[in-house]
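User: My advisor asked me to double-check a structure prediction for Membrane protein before group meeting. I don't want to rely on an old file, so could you generate it fresh from this sequence?
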Amino acid sequence: MTSLDKPTEDTQAEDTAQQDARAVTEAALFEAFGGVRGMVETVLPGLLFVTIFTINKDLHWSAIAALAVSVVLVVVRLAMRDTVKHAFSGVFGVAFGVVFAMMTGNAKDFYLPGMLYTLGLALAYIVTTLCGVPLIGLILGPVFKENLSWRTRNPGRKKAYAKASWAWGLILLAKCAILFPLYWWANTAQLGWVLVALKIPPFLLAVWLTWVFLAKAPPPIDVFAEMEAEEKAEEERKAAQAQAAGSGETSGTAGRHRK
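Assistant: Sure, here is a fresh prediction for Membrane protein from the sequence you gave:
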């Protein structure tokens, strides 16, 4: 190997490591946010509600259809023995919207719980980041098997989580700045179609920015692997101590027999 070959190999190794880190980040984001299927489960109930309401202006049928499709999505997940957290969150969100709209008799109120949740989530991203514990890190830490190690042991990763949380918070606030005025000024169909249109693009933008920030960040510290290594080392230490103690007893017994 010449001195000219070494930098090339080092560069290739760094590129491979970066590609691996990006692949891990993509897989973690896909798992955390549900991927394409999770997006479909998020959009479909609201889309069905606004479609039916636009056609017949019937709050009850629109609400029943939205709730029914949410339940079907959960049943399909259960039948396939798949993760149901995204489908269940969709059912609860739709159920709250249905109850609220039925209580007030105003079809626009079907969307209000979800809008309030979006506003609360935006504030949570911003407040937790200001407090030094960015929410996106709390969400993705267990997925990356790093838990909260990034807070004290991985400052570069903490900085990336802070940037990502700012992105999520500001994007969701911008979404709220569009939706809440429409809640007061637009009719139910107009609000519904705008809300459906704003379901996926802001989400994809926030996920993409999160990927960009984390792909450039230091790799996560696998605290589970560290714990397993510590347990294995402790077991080996105890085994060595037991073996040493056994050897000492054997030597002592042999010495007494010689006497």
